[in-house]
Amino acid sequence: MPSFAHSARKPWEQEHCRRSPSPRNPPTPLLCWAPHTDNVIAAGKRGIESFGEASTVRFIAAIALISALTVPSGDADAQEIDTDHLFAFSLGTDIGEVGTIELESEANVRVGKRGNRYTAYSQELEVGYIPVENLHVFVGGSLAYYDIDRVPGLEDRRKLSFNELEAEVRYRLMDRARSPFGLAVEVQPGWAAVEETSGERKDSYGFAFSLLADKEIIEDRVVAVVNIAYELEAARADGSWEKESALRISGSLGVQVRPGLFLGAEVQHLRRYEGLGLDSRAGQATFLGPSLCWKPGNIWVIAGWSTQVAGDAAGFPGSLDLINFERNRAKLTVGFSF
């Protein structure tokens, strides 16, 4: 789904913790709804906010230095790079073998807006399949939880609800093993039951078109990925249609510091507009942060965090856009293939 969307008795407080779809079923706090969900969300929010106060630029520089010092000189121990499952906020062009089935769980947390407290959490489960060479399809659905208190322009809300259904179709145009770089296109239609920012009940229909590119700078060691996406959304509320669009440009650089272990740095620039044709800019934001990927065999675990370092909202002063976007974002993905 495009990045827009994304009773007094709390029924989810009686549910047991759900486990990751990993074959070994490890318990992961961000991938479950425990009886004390409020405490888990609050603790995660405090951790992300405190981490966001550190110097992002110095942290990325430290990652680059560690990566440069730990990359071995030879390539005997290097694992072949698969950019399909490597970064938290960017996608590569690699497509697996025909007939492969993939299961993936993705947890997203967005924290921080103007005012008192804002936390939005979504948990998505996806099933992927590779029917023919160079074609990858996904279908999935997600739940969302909102904890909003005294944020200007938003109603107070503490609610768990069904979030969205979506599909992804990715086709590789150029294989970087036989071309100067890899190139792929992806289309992503979806339907959402709640508004992404406020959590308000609202039917919306979205479509995203993405151009993906990647290149190995050092074979089996260092890889770069660039994504450009155009996103559309139309939502029906009170008998009328609300139309929005967005541009998203992201770049990621990853280094394989040990076989199957990657450290990365990622940057995203997001622009949101009123109207389907990028008619009137509502705001823009640039995010920067580190990522980590671990691939033991046919399993992948990807963690990423990103903080807003620059931005502005139309009609609002300040050097950040906390109207259309959040202060911090974090993502945890766990998946396996067979």
Give structural notes:
The protein has helices at 37-52, 56-70; strands spanning 101-111, 117-129, 135-149, 157-174, 182-194, 201-218, 222-237, 240-258, 261-274, 280-294, 299-313, 328-337. It has 338 residues and is mainly beta. The protein is globular and about 55 Å long.
Q: What are its keywords?
A:
338 residues, mainly beta, 12-stranded antiparallel beta barrel, 9% helix, disordered N terminus
Low-confidence stretches: 3-55
Tally of strands: 12
Distance between the termini: 25 Å
What percent of residues adopt helix (DSSP H or I)?
under 10%
Gyration radius, rounded:
20 Å
Gross morphology is: globular
Structural class: mainly beta
Record the strand order, biggest sheet.
1-2-3-4-5-6-7-8-9-10-11-12
Query: Which assembly state applies to the chains in this document?
Result: single chain
Beta-strand residue fraction: over 45%
Q: What is the N-to-C order of secondary-structure elements (H for helix, E for strand)? A: HHEEEEEEEEEEEE
Compute the number of helices: 2
Mean pLDDT: 84
Concise synopsis of the structure shown:
This protein is mainly β and 338 residues long. The chain has helices at residues 37-52, 56-70; strands at residues 101-111, 117-129, 135-149, 157-174, 182-194, 201-218, 222-237, 240-258, 261-274, 280-294, 299-313, 328-337.
